[in-house]
Design brief:
By secondary structure, this protein is α/β, with parallel strands linked by helices. Strands 1-2-3-4-5-6-8-9 form an eight-stranded parallel β-barrel, surrounded by five helices. It contains 13 helices and ten strands. Strand 7, helix 10 and strand 8 form a beta-alpha-beta unit. It binds (3S,4R)-3-hydroxy-2-oxopiperidin-4-yl beta-D-xylopyranoside. (3S,4R)-3-hydroxy-2-oxopiperidin-4-yl beta-D-xylopyranoside (XIL) binds next to loops. Its EC number is 3.2.1.8.
């Protein structure tokens, strides 16, 4: 079959990790062949780029951007403001609100400026909501109050006038309390003139939970606000070990997400959170679950891949 990236004018992406990118030729080959966008799985997170205060390590992020450049791929930046994967100096630091605000502004300015021109879109804020639609407790909310969100978008825009700026979250694919809260926030930010261009739907699915019929209408209601929408971290885990029925259910979910995105004009990107079961965050995070990707550990196409790309 043709590569996935040739089946649509939308970006077809994958999360990538610098380790296998450096050491596994077959991983590089599949990534370069099938995808025209990449997202750093961890390498642009705060703990990766500034492990000690003021000491930056750009090596992993640079390797990914360089691979993308050489392979004609677009880059999604992930992520500027998050409650997780913060460096210890920040997580355990005792900063005043004023200091913390300066630290956040400096972080956003530094990383967005560094990759200006090489990154198409940034996940500016990641996972800011609880399941009930309230704002998630974090050092940002606690110390800076809810305005940290608007500030983050403004600082990112100052550093790069043309990069697309997104809010990103999980369990927002369907219409529910969390996606309602996201919708209300985006509407409010737009009304205030805050520079937000898009909404990312992580879409970490499991065959045992499925996907509701509200998925496509949900994408559509966000698009109607005048923003782009993107599938940013799709994977579909199964209870392991898998069998033919589970892989068929997985394939159907991948296909529904693909079809839903392609049916919405403003769905600009379909990105999976890793393309091979050889390297996936799922087994480590959800014990007893796994095999969540389009390709198996030997890089053979699974039923899910063939559902998207029957050839
Ligand atoms: C995950 C990575 O895949 C893991 O390697 C890491 O240990 C933890 O983070 N939502 C996100 C991603 O926005 O950044 C997360 O990535 C998965 C859930």
């Amino acid at each position: 079959p043709p590569p996935l990236k040739e089946l649509t004018d939308r970006y077809v992406g994958s999360a990538v990790a610098a380790g296998p990118l450096a050491s596994e030729a077959d991983y590089r080959a599949t990534l370069g062949r099938e995808f025209d966008s990449v997202t750093a799985e961890n390498e642009m997170k705060w703990s990766s780029v500034e492990p000690n205060r003021g000491q930056y390590n750009w090596s992993g992020a640079d390797q990914i951007v360089e691979f993308a450049d050489q392979n004609g791929q677009s880059v999604r930046g992930h992520t500027l403001v998050w409650h997780s994967q913060l460096p210890n100096w920040l997580q355990n630091g005792d900063f005043s609100a004023e200091e913390l605000r300066g630290i956040l502004q400096n972080h956003i300015t530094t990383i967005v400026t560094r990759y200006r021109g090489s990154i198409r879109a940034w996940d500016v804020v990641n996972e800011v909501f609880n399941e009930d639609g309230s704002l998630r407790d974090s050092i940002w909310l606690r110390q800076l109050g809810p305005d940290y969100i608007a500030d983050a978008f403004r600082w990112a825009r100052e550093a790069d006038p043309s990069v697309k700026l997104y809010i990103n979250d999980y369990n927002t694919e369907n219409i529910n309390a969390k996606s309602d809260a996201t919708y209300a926030l985006v509407q409010d930010l737009r009304a205030q003139g805050v520079p937000i261009d898009g909404v990312g739907f992580q879409t970490h699915l499991a065959t045992k939970y499925g996907l509701s019929d509200s998925f496509q209408p949900n994408l559509e209601r966000f698009a109607a606000l005048g923003v782009d929408v993107a599938i940013t971290e799709l994977d579909v885990r199964v209870d392991t070990p898998s069998d033919a029925a589970k892989l068929a259910a997985q394939a159907e979910l991948y296909k529904r997400v693909w079809d839903g995105c392609l049916a919405v004009d403003r769905c600009v990107e379909f990105t999976v959170w890793g393309f091979t079961d050889r390297h996936s965050w799922v087994p480590g995070t959800f014990p007893g679950e796994g095999e969540a990707c389009l390709f198996d550990a030997s890089l053979n196409a699974k039923p899910a891949y063939r559902a998207l790309n029957p050839g």
